[in-house]
Design goal:
655 residues, 30 helices, mainly alpha
Length: 655
């Protein structure tokens, strides 16, 4: 490789002391490559050279500060020399051994012939260590920094030394080996005298166990076993930790046989079975074998699949409760799962927790009352009533738990004070009273709940005829669109044998309901007619059929529709309603032979002889050329033994 030749400035030789880049604000500096590898090492002859300050055993920070000061000094010298050279010879030759870019850290890339090493061709003025300097150039800040760095170095050395000592030490178990060996000499009294440490941490403060037992050492257990090796001698089996033997005698002292626990347990079980199976006086067995086997057969043994299903249900319901704790059915389902699993106590605990979290859910309170005994259930329902005074179900359930009528009345009256507009509570309270007291309660109830048709009708049934009419008139004013009031008024008149008033009331009822735009279909009216017949009011049923059976029926479909209605009512046992429908049909279609035959068949199966004769006479009169009606009528009279009347009927038929 050819030797490096420094570049020559264009236009002439570089002046002495030239520092490249000085004109644009750059500052000259010296690097290790500029000084050479020999810098910073102690000289072979021990002379005091400029790099001697780096050859000592000082700290790294001191060396760096010395180098910084040396570099600043060199830069000042270079600037002063450059300024002086610029004044003397602005365009002079470059100094001897100048290497272009040396101030930026550049070095020669190759050595030519006669080169002595990496520092060949370097300016002698810049040779030597750039860290050389005098100690008197440092200031107070540098001294303080030296102290801080020295403290950091000492701290790091101590830490490394401590880690080395810990790594070379023994294990914790080895350190307590001698103390563990001394436990063999501890007596039982000394061991019992050791105080309990306890757990005083905040996390377990509320869950601290009441009894804390310290386990015995192996040496104590072994010594006790050897001392009591003869505990079973003489046929005496001593239970662990007691002085009472199974055969009724006492052992000497406080002895325990650990090896005989199995034998003692079997002996105790044998004695228990013997005591159960025989009577001490007669020696006869006191256990019913059949009943005992029956109880065993009724015992439910849960399979593994059922247990798994229960556990899955528990997890699922726990997730439901955690996700939505205000969801009452989740608590109820969880309690019923525990009840099905046979854990009634856990079920009660869950449902009471649900009552606390969901205090406004009546179903949760009712479920809690169901799971608890009667006395506790009453307390629970009382708390629920205080929490939800308007809950009717809670009061009804509380009344059901009472055994005496006066207690039930007290509960219901208390409920009516909180819920005066509850029809259900009024009904329950009225059912417990006699006629006179019920009349008084009903008179108050109709004022509190005037929209209840059942209470109005109940009051009308308990009143006399005149008062009942007044009650129904008041009810009709409060409920003008209710057809039940009109029907009740018609039944009331029929009960007093006011037949003409029945038809008038029903006719007025139909017109009044139409006026108030109350929608009552034809089918609903026919059901009301059948209900009136079942209640013992055939005239009311006939009047309802008369004024409503033709509503909404086309003229061409009336005969077929009415015939079907009569057959339907007859199939449901409503004979009077069917008779009324056929009577209305025959009034509209008096010459229809099929309707007359249907009426005759109805009277023959469900009517009397007189009613059948009346229908046959009417049919013969309406259809005189139909011989079947004459013949049937004559035959019925002949079968009844009235031959003369039968002969006169046939004679009239020939005319």
């Amino acid at each position: 490789m050819s030797s490096y030749k420094p570049r020559v400035r264009v236009g002439g030789v570089q002046p002495r002391g030239y520092i490249p880049g000085l004109g644009r604000g750059a500052a000259g500096f010296v690097t290790q490559s500029d000084i050479g590898p020999a810098t910073g090492r102690p000289s072979a002859t021990g002379d005091d050279d400029p790099g001697a300050s780096l050859s000592g055993t000082g700290s790294r920070s001191s060396e760096l500060r010395a180098a910084k000061l040396q570099m600043q000094k060199m830069q000042k010298e270079q600037l002063a020399a450059a300024a002086e050279e610029q004044q003397q010879n602005p365009f002079g030759v470059a100094p001897s051994g100048y290497v272009a870019g040396l101030g930026r850290g550049a070095s020669s890339y190759g050595e030519g012939k006669g080169s002595d090493g990496p520092t060949a061709g370097v300016n002698p003025e810049m040779s030597g260590s750039m860290f050389a300097g005098k100690e008197d150039q440092f200031d107070d800040d540098d001294d303080e920094a030296d102290k801080i760095y020295d403290q950091i170095d000492d701290r790091i050395k101590k830490r490394h030394k401590k880690n080395d000592d810990d790594s070379s030490g023994s294990a914790i178990s080895d350190q307590f080996r001698d103390l563990k060996q001394q436990l063999a000499t501890v007596t039982e009294d000394q061991w019992a005298a050791i105080p309990d440490v306890g757990d005083y941490s905040l996390r377990h403060k509320q869950k601290r166990r009441e009894d804390v037992f310290t386990p015995l050492t192996d040496s104590l257990l072994e010594s006790r076993s050897h001392n009591n090796a003869d505990a079973t001698a003489g046929g005496q089996n001593t239970m662990a930790g007691t002085a009472q033997v199974v055969d009724g005698t006492l052992t000497a002292g406080y002895r325990t046989n650990l090896s005989g626990l199995a034998e003692a347990r079997s002996t105790v079980m044998t004695m228990s079975l013997d005591k159960m199976s025989s009577d001490s006086a007669t020696g006869q067995t006191v256990i019913d074998p059949k009943g005992y086997l029956t109880s065993l057969s009724n015992t439910k043994i849960a399979s593994a699949a059922e247990v798994g299903d229960v556990n899955k249900a528990r997890l699922l319901l726990k997730s439901v409760r955690d996700t939505n704790p205000k969801h009452g059915p989740g608590w109820i389902a969880a309690a019923r799962v525990e009840e099905a699993a046979g854990k009634t106590a856990q079920a009660r605990k869950l449902i009471m927790e649900g009552c606390e979290i969901c205090p406004d859910n009546e179903d949760v309170w009712l479920e809690a009352a169901r799971l608890h005994p009667i006395d506790q259930a009453k307390t629970i329902l009382a708390a629920a009533a205080r929490r939800m005074p308007t809950c009717v179900k809670v009061y009804l359930r509380a009344a059901d738990l009472e055994n005496h009528d006066f207690a039930k009345k007290a509960v219901l009256r208390k409920a009516l004070e909180a819920n005066p507009n509850s029809v259900t509570l009024w009904k329950a309270a009225i059912d417990l009273e006699d006629a006179d007291d019920a009349r008084v309660l009903l008179s108050v109830a109709v004022e509190k709940v005037p929209h209840s048709i059942e209470i109005w009708l109940a009051l009308a049934r308990l009143e006399s005829y005149e008062n009942a009419r007044k009650v129904l008139n008041q009810a009709r004013k409060h409920l003008p669109t209710e057809r039940s009031i009109w029907i009740a008024a018609a039944k009331l008149e029929e009960s007093q044998r006011h037949e003409e008033m029945v038809a008038k009331i029903v006719d007025k009822a139909v017109r009044s309901l139409d006026k108030h735009e109350a929608i009552v279909t034809r089918v609903q009216w026919l059901k009301e007619a059948e209900a009136a017949e079942a209640a013992g009011a055939p005239l009311t049923s006939a009047a309802i059929v008369k004024y409503t059976v033709g509503r909404g029926v086309d003229d061409e479909d009336r005969q077929r529709k009415w015939s079907d209605d009569a057959n339907g009512a007859l199939s449901r046992g409503a004979i009077a309603t069917a008779r009324a429908i056929l009577a209305h049909s025959l009034a509209e279609f008096p010459t229809k032979r099929s309707l007359w035959l249907q009426a005759v068949d109805l009277e023959r199966k469900h009517g009397s002889a007189s009613s059948l004769d009346e229908v046959l006479a009417a049919a013969s009169e309406r259809l005189p050329r139909t011989e079947i009606f004459w013949l049937v009528r004559a035959k019925e009279k002949w079968l009844a033994g009235d031959v003369d009347t039968s002969r006169s009927i046939l004679t009239e038929a020939f005319k």
